[in-house]
Design a protein that fits this description.
The protein is an alpha/beta fold. The chain is built from 23 helices and 32 strands. The protein has an eleven-stranded mixed beta sheet with strand order 23-22-31-30-29-24-28-27-25-26-32, with helices on both faces. The chain starts with a helix and ends in an 8-residue tail after the last strand. 48% of the residues are buried. Bound molecules: adenosine-5'-triphosphate. The site of adenosine-5'-triphosphate has 15 residues, from helix 9.
């Protein structure tokens, strides 16, 4: 029993323990349940609070269900705490930092309140970087624990387009008015920031003809704002697209990708900004318009075209910011994200806006009306621009603002047209001056040729009154209208230079001048501008010159582009230039066209703007003359005194200072109305006595860019004689004199002998001057008249025999030069036979011509016609005279002397044809030299003949003077 009770007690105790444990467990579970319930309730409240917004819940908790519950209070406390924690960094720094950022990125009117600036005129010019942000409202973070505000701003102009959307989308809605005010405020900021004229506004409203942005209306008076017809959106979009095309082909030539980068690199922008504001109605545009709008949006910013679209669907991948107006005083912006609320800026009173716009308009009008001068084309500092990628300089003004021309890869060459008196020369002066002031002579060289009668380019060379010259000019050709060959020479020179540059580029494994300059930064590779005024003269006749000119022009025009060689061709009448228009390959390269008033054919046929131009204006067109490329400019007077001449002086002085007076070389001047002086011609001046068996005989000057002397060499081989042909005595004697004097300079005294025979009275003075100059130089000279001719020729014939007989053709013998003035005048004397030997002077002359050169006896003779030379030479071949120079002889008469080839040549004053059968395939045109400074002025009576040191018989004869001018003491034979 006791045992049973014990067992029972134990069971009871176990049950009690179990009950107690179960009760504990139940209590814990109930507690846990209560805790979980409370937690869950708090979470639900937290969720509700979060959904409702912490700020709103804290402001008005009663709005939320269960707000009386303790869990709600706890949840709200925690949410507020958490928000404070999360926002702590923002609260401490965010609004302040953003305020500073806007203050920095949006200086002056870009962010300041309108009261501080509205009505004052902007002063910023386009060279300084534009503000990167423009303020439009005040933002705050509604959820932030503290309601700190900061400015809301958007990037505009070069940076981004702007899309404004009204949430309600209805036209009449208040938000739409806010949108208009917002646009107006932004435009006013821009218009008041910059100098009037730099911001042009275009407004299109699908629903309204006028009345949009009424406060800005005064801007329309000066064209700063254009209101476009609601039905003509296509026109506006096309106009904007044209701007983009034109800016790409003008301002952005030379590798710049945007006007912004152009301004940053060069300090000039050249184009205003165009802000196009399009008000839509929320509906998409027609497909074509939409595409055009997208194109403008894509390419516009680089060209200063900025879009502000209101309620117009537009998608652009980048550079588009948006503002969505949710209510008149509430906006969101892509700049600030969805969590920030923006209150648009206050709108200034309408009359204040109108007054400010009137002031901007008037200032712009008066700026536009001011007369811009040549000096306004010039930069503040000379020679600061780099020509690596191209050349660009203003040439005139549109609305008072400079308009530039560009020469580079995209528009390599220029065609300028305008009738006589329309101002072509003046335009060229303006253009060259503007370029020359910007680019140093190491960046730009000029080759200038004027086919006009007159000397308009002579200004660029030193003159008697003005010693200055244009430092960029390397060659100036004036009065060349009869010397079309000079045009050819210039084109040939350019073609050679082009090849030289291409070779240098190839060596550096590149193809263009631009790349060559990058690879060879120390090299001197200036761009070349070559002007040919009245270039139609080049094609004046259907002859070899014209066809060669066309071929060369095509070559230079096509390949010059990449080698930095730019042609500028000007003409009063380009229409008739068959060789030019007949070769599209040439004129297609002339992308830049300049048409002066009444110019025909320079622009494309349906572009008649030039016909209506007022005086002193020009159409500048970088699009091969198509209409949308037209830029009408007013051209300042560049030829009046104190314009170009003053600039030239400044440039010249700087050039002398930089290079040193002795190194500063003036341009070579080719003046077709003057003969070049023999003294001063480097080929003559540089001749020195040398031991040579091939002395050079100079004759005249070749028509080339360098001013090279035409020469032949007198080596000891058959045919090395020279005939001068034709009746032009002055020219013929000049050639004879040049040849003798040039030979004289190549021998020391006693190392050459001269016999000078003057066979007409007319020539004795010239011949004597040459003889006495040679004598003064120490040479042995025998001067004879017709009376001594027979004996002289006999002596020469003996000399030839003697030297031939010596076997070595007298190789060491002193060379002997027979200079004969008017050989044909002595024909009858020459034909006279010696009674005993029956040998005539003619026989002896022929023998001297034939055999002399090999023995160092050369003849330089003047015959007054080609036929008379043939009479002297007889019926045989003419190759004993291997070279000739002909003046006033028709081409066909010369054919037999040039291996029968067809020679088209009409004689011209002071121009000769030179043919050396050993080197020439065709004769070349030469100018005789002016010897006045090269010969002794003394024309006194020749001295009496006394001695003959070279075994020549002493000339005698009653009818002429004769003299041996040896410079030595004369002794009787
Ligand atoms: N923009 C201008 N402003 C004032 N005067 C000008 C202007 N352009 C030209 N002139 C004057 O007009 C005259 C003729 O100009 P220019 O010699 O340049 O014309 P052109 O077309 O070259 O004529 P031509 O072919 O007959 O020489 C000159 O006296 C010149 O000073």
């Amino acid at each position: 029993m006791r045992k049973r009770n014990e067992r029972r007690g134990a069971i009871q105790a176990a049950f009690d323990r179990l009950s107690a444990t179960a009760a504990t467990a139940r209590g814990a579970a109930a507690n846990e349940l209560a805790r979980v319930r409370a937690e869950s309730a708090k979470r639900e409240h937290a969720l509700r609070i979060a959904r409702h917004g912490v700020t709103a819940a804290a402001r008005d908790p009663g709005e939320l269900e269960g707000s009386e519950q303790a869990e709600f209070r706890r949840a709200l406390e925690e949410a507020v705490e958490e928000r404070t924690e999360v926002f702590s960094e923002w609260t401490a720094r965010g609004p302040g930092q953003l305020g500073e950022l806007v203050a920095e990125a949006a200086p002056g009117t870009a962010a300041a309140p309108w009261r501080e600036w509205l009505g004052s005129i902007g002063t910023a010019d386009a060279r300084i970087p534009a503000p990167t942000l423009w303020r439009f409202g005040t933002a705050h973070a509604p959820d932030a624990p503290e309601a700190a505000e900061f400015p809301a701003a958007v990037p505009l102009l070069d940076e981004s387009h702007l899309r404004i959307t009204c949430r309600s989308g209805t036209l009449e809605s208040a938000t739409r008015d806010t949108a208009e005010s917002l646009v107006q405020n932004l435009l006013l900021r821009m218009l008041s920031y910059y100098e009037p004229g730099l911001i042009r506004v275009h407004v299109w409203d699908t629903a309204r003809l006028t009345g949009t942005l009424p406060g800005l209306f005064p801007l329309t008076r000066s064209g700063l704002l254009t209101a476009h017809d609601p039905t003509r959106l296509d026109d506006l979009l096309e106009e904007l697209a044209e701007h983009i095309r034109r800016i790409h082909t003008t301002a952005l030539l030379g590798g710049h990708t945007s006007l912004k980068s152009l301004a940053a690199e060069t300090g000039h922008r050249g184009e205003p900004w165009r802000v196009a504001v399009l008000f839509g109605d929320g509906e998409p545009l027609k497909e074509e318009q939409q595409q055009q709008l997208q194109r403008v949006a894509r390419n516009g910013l680089a060209c200063g075209i900025q879009l502000i679209v209101v309620d117009l669907p537009m998608t652009v991948n980048n550079a588009l910011e948006s503002v969505t107006l949710l209510a008149p005083d509430l906006a969101r912006s892509s700049m600030t994200g969805p969590h920030l609320a923006i209150r648009p800026d206050e709108v200034p009173p309408r009359e204040r806006v109108s007054r400010a716009c009137s002031a901007i308009s008037e200032t712009f009008q008066s700026r536009r009306a001011r007369v811009r001068t040549f000096d306004d084309l010039l930069p503040e500092q000379l020679w600061t621009q780099d020509s690596t990628t191209g050349l660009s300089a203003p040439v005139g003004f549109f609305e008072g603002e400079p308009v530039r021309i560009s020469l580079g890869d995209t528009s390599p060459h220029t065609l300028i047209g305008g009738p006589s008196g329309s101002g072509k020369t003046n335009f060229l002066y303006g253009m060259l001056g503007s370029l020359a002031a910007r680019y140093s002579p190491d960046e730009l060289e000029m080759y200038l040729l004027d086919f006009k009668e007159g000397v308009s380019f002579a200004q660029f060379t030193p003159g008697n009154r003005d010693p200055s010259w244009l430092p960029h000019a390397r060659l100036v050709g004036v009065n060349v209208n009869t010397d079309r060959e000079f045009g050819l020479a210039l084109l040939r020179f350019l073609a050679t230079e082009m090849r030289r540059r291409a070779d240098a580029a190839k060596e550096q494994e590149v193809t263009k001048l631009e790349e060559l300059r990058q690879r060879d930064p120390k090299g001197r590779w200036p761009r070349i501008v070559s002007v040919i005024d009245e270039f139609q003269y080049l094609f004046a006749e259907r002859d070899a010159v014209s066809s060669q000119a066309a071929t060369l022009l095509e070559d230079v025009a096509r390949r010059g582009r990449s080698q930095g060689i730019h042609l500028v061709l000007a003409s009063q009448d380009v229409s008739g230039i068959e060789a030019f228009w007949g070769k599209p390959a040439i004129f297609e390269q002339f992308i830049l066209r300049v048409a002066l008033p009444k110019a025909r054919r320079v622009l494309v046929d349906n572009n008649t703007t030039a016909l209506e131009l007022p005086r002193w204006h020009a159409v500048v067109n970088h699009e091969s003359g198509v209409k949308h490329g037209n830029e009408v400019v007013r051209v300042p007077d560049a030829t009046a005194s104190e314009t170009f001449d003053s600039l030239q002086h400044r440039l010249w002085e700087r050039h002398l200072w930089e290079t040193g007076r002795r190194n500063a070389l003036p341009p070579r001047l080719f003046d077709g109305s003057h003969l070049p002086g023999l003294i001063g011609t480097s080929d003559f001046d540089e001749l020195r006595p040398v031991t040579t068996r091939r002395p050079r005989v100079l004759l005249g000057q070749v028509i080339d860019v360098r001013g090279t002397a035409a020469a032949l060499s007198f080596e000891r081989s058959p045919g090395r004689n020279l005939a001068v042909l034709g009746s032009a005595q002055v020219d013929a004697t000049a050639v004879l004199g040049t040849s003798a004097l040039s030979l004289g300079r190549q021998f020391s005294p006693g190392r050459a002998a001269f016999t000078i025979a003057t066979l007409t009275e007319d020539t004795s003075e010239d011949a004597w001057a040459v003889a006495s100059t040679l004598r003064d130089a120490g040479h042995t000279v025998t001067f004879i008249g017709p009376g001594e001719l027979g004996e002289t020729l006999r002596g020469l014939s003996d000399l030839v025999d003697e030297r031939s007989g010596s076997g070595g053709t007298g190789s060491d013998a002193v060379p002997h030069y027979l200079l004969c003035y008017a050989v044909d005048a002595a024909q009858s004397i020459l034909e006279r036979k010696e009674p005993e030997s029956r040998v005539s002077g003619l026989d002896q002359l022929r023998k001297t011509l034939k055999q002399g050169p090999e023995c160092g006896v050369h003849t330089i003779g003047w015959w007054r016609s080609a036929q008379r030379l043939r009479n002297t030479l007889g019926m045989g071949p003419t190759d004993d005279v291997g070279a000739w120079v002909a003046f006033d002889v028709q081409g066909q008469e010369l054919a037999p002397l040039a291996a029968g080839q067809l020679i088209t040549w009409s004689p011209r004053v002071h121009r000769g044809l030179f043919f050396d059968r050993s080197v020439h395939s065709h004769p070349e045109v030469i100018l005789p030299f002016d010897l006045s400074e090269a010969v002794d002025g003394s024309t006194g009576e020749p001295e009496e003949v006394t001695a003959e040191p070279n075994n020549l018989p002493r000339p005698r004869g009653p009818e002429t003077v004769s003299s041996n001018i040896s410079g030595e003491e004369a002794t009787d034979d």
